[in-house]
Amino acid sequence: QVEFEESGGGVVQPGGSLRLSCSASGSNIENPVMGWCRQAPGKEREFVAAVTGGGRVTYGNSAKGRFTISREAGKNAVALQMSNLESGDTAVYFCNTGGTSCSPLGYWGQGTQVTVSS
């Protein structure tokens, strides 16, 4: 069993910033790839960013240049710093171990809502 603690979602104006945080604990994970996928209403899940246990980072097209993912060394904890947010970033953001494919076979948190609105 894996448990996630996610925080940092909320409402922000276009051009603003938010920071999402996530930590995972459990007996079934060991230094996994951790990252974020998002899902907007009526749309499929979309890969945002992920980081391996060794620190290798991958970003989805929508995140490049605006979002930064970081991971605490030796821990199953990641943060996503989002800047220059746009209305198209409005979605539920899920911390997960599903990798760049947002695989449902990974472990997933409950999600945190991010709303970008003026």
What key phrases describe this protein's structure?
single chain; 118 residues; mainly beta; 4-stranded antiparallel sheet; 10 strands
What's this, in brief?
With 118 residues, the chain is mainly beta. It has strands spanning 2-7, 10-12, 18-26, 34-39, 46-51, 57-59, 67-71, 77-82, 91-96, 112-116. Helices cover 0% and strands 47% of the residues.
Describe this structure in words.
There is one protein chain. This protein has 118 residues and is an all-beta fold. It has strands spanning 2-7, 10-12, 18-26, 34-39, 46-51, 57-59, 67-71, 77-82, 91-96, 112-116. The protein has a 6-stranded mixed sheet, with no helix packed on it.
Structural category is mainly beta
What oligomeric state is this? single chain
Q: How can the largest sheet be summarized? A: 6 strands, mixed
Proportion of strand residues: over 45%
N- and C-termini, Cα separation = 40 Å
Percentage of helical residues? under 10%
Strand order of the largest sheet: 2-10-9-4-5-6
Strand segment count = 10
Task: Tell me, briefly, the overall form.
Answer: globular
How is this fold's topology laid out?
Layout: E1 2-7, E2 10-12, E3 18-26, E4 34-39, E5 46-51, E6 57-59, E7 67-71, E8 77-82, E9 91-96, E10 112-116
Parallel strand pairs: 2-10
Antiparallel strand pairs: 1-3, 3-8, 4-5, 4-9, 5-6, 7-8, 9-10
